[in-house]
Design goal:
This protein has four helices and three strands; from the N terminus they run ββααβαα. It has a three-stranded antiparallel beta sheet with strand order 2-1-3. It is globular, with a radius of gyration of 12 Å. The two termini are about 20 Å apart.
Length: about 90
């Protein structure tokens, strides 16, 4: 069984993009170098990984992604900096 990850990248314009994957380094490469990256990040390159968290399966990662995306921008940065542990 593969581990799944919730990851957050910071785009060149300072915005955040959140996604899930089972291979963070491959996904980061896709965001920065290929057409497989999300449309949102394609026009905001380069992106850099600012946070990731491992989950046991895709379902858990998707659930965490849903919850994370509902947070305010400020709350997301608190998690990224380690000031809170909601994700």
């Amino acid at each position: 069984m593969w581990a799944w990850y919730l990851y957050v990248v910071e785009c060149a314009d300072g915005t955040l993009y959140t996604g899930i994957t089972n291979n963070v380094s491959r996904r980061l490469h896709e965001h920065n170098n290929t057409k497989k990256g999300a449309k949102y990040t394609r026009v905001r390159r380069p992106v850099k990984l600012v946070w990731e968290k491992q989950y046991n399966n895709r379902s858990e990662a998707q659930s965490a992604e849903y919850q994370f995306k509902k947070l305010l921008h400020k709350q997301k940065w608190q998690i990224i900096r380690g000031d809170r542990d909601d994700a």
